[in-house]
Write a structure and sequence with these properties.
The complex is a heterotrimer of chains A (298), B (372) and C (343). Helices cover 44% and strands 21% of the residues of chain B. Chain B is α/β, with parallel strands linked by helices. In chain B, the strands form three sheets. A seven-stranded mixed sheet of chain B has the order 7-6-8-9-10-14-15, with helices on both faces. The termini of chain B are far apart. Chain C is mostly helical and 343 residues long. The chains are: A mainly alpha (298), B alpha/beta (372), C mainly alpha (343). Chains in contact: A-B, A-C, B-C. The interface between A and B is large, with 38 and 39 residues.
Chain lengths: 298, 372, 343
């Protein structure tokens, strides 16, 4: 592989990886506080993309405003799903929560299918993000450059919230022991709602970024991305925000690099995330940055 | 006098209303699940066709019932049996995916109910069934047409094929295209695999770039083909792309934007220049309902499946005699359908011509006609 | 062997009687739905063994079903059929050699192959626990599907296999469903079943008590794989064709919904869950048709059925938090009801 192709792949992998990372953060945070694999998370990402799209088309909002709109709606949606489907089950077996999560996921997919149809819609990419930058042989779309940068900024903000604010401290405490946190006079439900809001906001941004790079949105778009992002979260060590980002980048890079190194493996692309995950978990059963379950998280 | 005629007419209307039977045609299609888009577009065609021609010649009304298959096996088998034994359908239109269509036909064959597949193109679909037929062309024919057109008319020598390995449709086309293209003196440099639902083709397009072929053959559905074209443009891969009727959908141009200009594809008919009287009427109706004349290939094929079936029913003395309907479907000769002139042979395969089109300025434009 | 209780014999007789009578009572459609329910009962009951009784949150039954379906289909199709069907690559030599028209032998082979795979997989899989186990097994299920797509000389890729002899009538599916329920119940109430429940309730404690937890888990895993493989074989012989895409994780989710809805660990729950999810989904079909209500006909909304289905799923889960039967069986429920009446 010559150097420019190598660079091209690096850029592509970085951009793909950061999108997985953004979605994986939401998985990992919800898992941290509720020990719930939130299968509806990928669909919240889909909702984010749709809301942003309709914000631009139906409400004539400028792109940035539409993104803010989508983020707000998704935060609300995250809180609503928590209140309706997860909160009543706080004391139920965790697997019942998983089923309601799958139920919410089916509901969102089918609702959007009936309302908007399954035919993909062309997401509107603003002119300034469509620009293609050329460095020698390497060409990158503006959006592909912005995505990793914004991901890193968002990661910094998330870490700041987790480690430097009172709410972040409460979230981390909740991950340790939900009962004690209740005893300490912290409203656990409020904190969980905040976690859902935060995770869903990141998912919405992830959905918008995804649609900027691949401008075709449809009701089932969140399913496979969601699963891969979840694999990324586990790969990095579920419960750890840094691990989720790392896992996202690893999976993004593998998908891009392996396909370009040996195209005969391109048929296995979707399986890479899982093959990698299994290999790592065999040697390190808690993921790369994961700690033991009973010990600290984040 | 005028009053009497009105009276007579209205009496006739009432009596025909009173005696006319209701005959059911079942649309067994996926309207939810991962392939819902195919079913939804085809069903649009079936319902519109039903609206245009709701009765048979003898006055019987035709009722279309939709049975969702969710694109999966269990539901497909349930839906088909339900259509036959509960809805008492005399004919079935569906499914869209080849594997599920086989399932529908296997069940319907036992009950001797005719099935018209609007979009299952696999060559071997009808080999083991007596009550199946289709209105779309076979992979071998479309792939051959594309290969001959590119090799002879356009003079291309080398190709890279991008095949969707999760679609029977794509695999079948790629296979015939490859052998026919080689037969015509061309050379296939590489075959790259993608899977339906993939969004990221950056690695694929840089592979194509490094192979430097004369053109790229992309026999996939429109969501993948459009994104592939977009991402090819981003890395300045300016090779011509040739596709198949899987991209015959207005969404393809919406999704692809500027990047799909110059995309050549094979299709069943040219909507900007309707080939038959029926297709002109159908497009008018479609425009009335949707406000556009841009119509998806599946919609036209869904409508044709309906029209061919109704045409066959009209030829039968008893329009609910499904064996007769099936015979008549298999005897369809030069039927002027929405998507062009269709003949159906003994086995149930449609004989029809291929139209090559190119997207120019965001509009599919006619390029050439390839007859069987 | 314990002496079977009178209630068990009654249940058994009722089930067999229903099976024999169903061919005379029901029309094709109901028979088809019953047939599918029977196949799903086999899958759900066996999945319940590893997931509910042993408490190992695994998500790969779709992989075992796929293996079973492919093995059975490859055995039942003869060499000519294979040569004719394999379009992408010519079939591998052993694929051509593999043939027998004995349906039961094919089912057995399907089960055995799935078991062997389960035994091999149990080494990497049971190195991890809990939710890590879930994602690893989900990964394996996914990889099996991708392998089926990518090795066309064995599986014919996405084109799949078709014209599989449709041996699986309701007598077979129903009969095997009854046998597997009895088999699984016998395991659950054996010494081994108690060890499985011990692993579920507290793995470390079970280990400390001298239970070889790995052996217990592997046994549960491979037993459930055997039945899933057999179920897969029935699947292949019940539908005319198989393709890799139908063995997606969606199938696993469906089974998971079934066993959790019915009550994780309860066999009657699994059966009821199957009837609700597979049969109930069919019953909801009227929602896709135009609906007349209050003298007004609403236009058909294709897809409404699935929305209602997911809402019902969420509601049931909210109100029956541990599933409809919890961990109890029908006999337990009946017994406690009788006790309450006596009081």
């Amino acid at each position: 592989m010559d150097f420019s192709l190598f660079l091209q792949n690096m850029v592509n992998g970085f951009s793909l990886g950061s999108m997985y990372a953004l979605i994986a953060i939401g998985y990992t945070m919800v898992y941290g506080v509720l020990r719930l694999i939130n299968f509806a998370h990928g669909d919240i990402m889909m909702v984010g993309a749709y809301v942003c799209f309709f914000g631009m088309v139906s409400l004539n909002l400028p792109f940035i405003a539409a993104v803010v709109f989508a983020v707000t709606i998704c935060a609300a949606l995250g809180i609503i799903t928590d209140t309706i489907a997860y909160k009543p089950l706080r004391k139920a077996p965790r697997i019942s929560l998983l089923i309601t999560a799958i139920g919410i996921s089916f509901l969102l997919e089918n609702l959007f299918n009936v309302i908007f149809g399954s035919e993909p819609k062309a997401f509107i990419v603003p002119e300034y993000l469509q620009k293609v930058l050329t460095f020698g042989d390497v060409t990158v779309a503006m959006s592909a450059v912005l995505v990793p940068i914004i991901t890193l900024i968002l990661l910094a903000i998330t870490l700041f919230i987790l480690y430097r604010t009172k709410y972040g401290m409460a979230i981390r405490a909740l991950a340790f022991d939900i009962h004690t946190v209740n005893l300490m006079g912290i409203d656990a439900n409020l904190i969980i709602a905040i976690v859902f809001a935060l995770g869903s906001m990141l998912a919405a941004i992830g959905g918008v970024f995804w649609s900027l790079n691949y401008p075709s949105i449809e009701p089932m778009m969140g399913v496979l991305i969601g699963l891969k992002a979840f694999a990324a979260a586990v790969l990095g060590g579920i419960g750890s925000v840094g691990g989720a980002v790392l896992g996202g980048f690893i999976i993004g890079f593998t998908e891009v690099v392996v396909v370009s190194l040996s195209p005969e493996f391109s048929g296995f692309k979707d399986a890479f995330a899982f093959i990698f995950l299994i290999l790592i978990l065999i040697f390190k059963p808690t993921g790369i940055l994961g700690y033991n379950f009973e010990k600290s998280r984040f | 006098m005028k009053k009497i005629t009105t009276l007579a007419l209205s009496l006739a209307a009432i009596s025909s209303f009173g005696f006319a039977k209701e005959i059911t045609i079942a649309a067994v299609m996926p309207v939810t699940g991962p392939v819902a888009a195919y079913g939804q577009t085809a069903y649009e065609g079936v319902t519109l066709a039903n609206k245009m021609r709701p009765t048979l010649k003898n006055g019987d009304t035709i009722k279309v019932v939709l049975l969702d298959t969710r694109g999966e096996k269990v539901e497909t088998s349930n839906a088909t049996t339900r259509a036959i034994s509960q809805n008492k359908a005399v004919g079935i239109i569906g499914e869209l995916i080849t594997a599920n269509t086989m399932q529908v036909m296997a069940i319907a064959d036992k009950s001797k109910i005719p099935v018209i597949a609007p979009a299952a193109t696999s060559d071997k679909l009808l080999d083991n069934v007596k009550f199946g037929s289709r209105v779309c062309f076979m992979d071998s024919f479309q792939g051959k047409a594309a290969a001959e057109f590119t090799a002879k008319e356009l003079g291309y020598k080398t190709a890279v094929i991008v095949v969707d390995q999760a679609q029977v449709y794509s695999l079948g086309l790629a296979k015939t295209f490859e052998s026919e293209f080689v037969k015509n003196g061309g050379k296939v440099l590489s075959k790259l695999k993608i899977s339906s639902g993939d969004k990221d083709f950056k690695a694929i397009v840089s592979q194509i770039k490094s192979k430097n072929p004369d053109f790229v053959y992309v026999p996939t559905y429109h969501p993948e083909a459009s994104l592939l074209a977009r991402q090819a443009k981003q890395i300045n891969l300016n090779k011509p792309m040739v596709g198949s009727d899987g991209v015959a959908n207005p969404t393809f141009i919406e999704l692809g934007g500027d990047a799909v200009n110059g995309f050549i594809f094979s299709d069943s008919f040219d909507a900007s220049n309707p080939p038959t009287e029926l297709s002109k009427k159908f497009l008018d109706e479609y425009e009335k309902e949707k406000g556009t004349r841009d119509i998806a290939g599946f919609t036209a094929l869904g409508a044709d499946a309906y029209f061919v079936m109704v045409e066959a029913m009209d030829k039968c003395a008893d329009p609910s005699d499904s064996v007769c309907i099936n015979d008549q479907i298999h005897k369809t000769k030069e039927f002027s359908g929405v998507s062009g002139v269709i003949s159906i042979d003994e086995k149930g395969n449609a004989i029809r011509s291929v139209v090559m089109k190119e997207i120019v300025g965001g509009k599919p434009t006619f390029k050439a006609n390839v007859n069987p | 062997m314990r002496v079977p209780k009178i209630t068990h014999i009654i249940f058994f007789a009722l089930a067999v009687g229903f099976l024999v009578a169903s061919h005379y009572i029901f029309d094709d459609y109901s028979l088809r739905v019953l047939n599918n329910i029977a196949i799903f009962i086999i899958l759900a009951v066996s999945y319940n063994l590893i997931n509910g009784v042993t408490g190992q949150f695994s998500l790969e039954p779709n992989g075992f079903v796929a293996v079973g379906a492919y093995v059975a289909a490859l055995i039942l199709l003869d060499a000519d059929a294979k040569n004719y069907q394999f379009d992408l690559e010519s079939p591998a030599a052993f694929v051509l050699w593999l043939h027998s028209s004995n349906f039961l032998l094919a089912l057995l082979a399907a089960g055995v192959c799935a078991t062997i795979l389960a035994l091999v997989l149990s080494f990497p899989v049971f190195r991890v626990r809990g939710d890590y186990l879930a994602i690893v097994t989900l990964g394996f299920g996914f990889i099996i599907k991708i392998l089926a797509i990518n090795y066309p000389s064995i599986t014919n890729g996405s084109l799949g296999l078709s014209s599989i002899p449709q041996h699986a009538t309701l007598y077979y599916t129903g009969g095997i469903a009854i046998i597997s329920v009895i088999m699984v119940l016998n395991i659950v109430y054996s010494k081994f079943g108690r060890a499985m429940k011990a692993v579920r309730d507290d793995e470390d404690a079970a280990l400390a008590m001298g239970v070889n937890t790995f052996a217990v888990k592997t046994t549960a895993f491979s037993t459930s794989a055997f039945l899933e493989g057999v179920g897969g074989g029935l699947w292949a012989c019940s539908f005319a064709s198989i393709v890799p895409n139908e063995f997606d994780f969606y199938l696993t989710f469906q089974l998971l919904i079934i066993i959790v809805l019915g009550g994780l660990g309860s066999m009657t729950g699994a059966i009821l869950g199957t009837i609700l999810v597979i049969g109930g989904g069919e019953w909801l079909r009227f929602l896709d048709e135009p609906i007349s209500m209050f003298g007004h006909t609403f236009d058909a909304m294709p897809g409404l059925r699935m929305i209602v289905f997911s809402v019902i799923l969420i509601l049931v889960m909210l109100f029956a938090r541990e599933g409809i039967f919890g961990k109890r069986e029908l006999t337990d429920v009946a017994r406690s009801a009788i006790k309450r009446l006596k009081r």
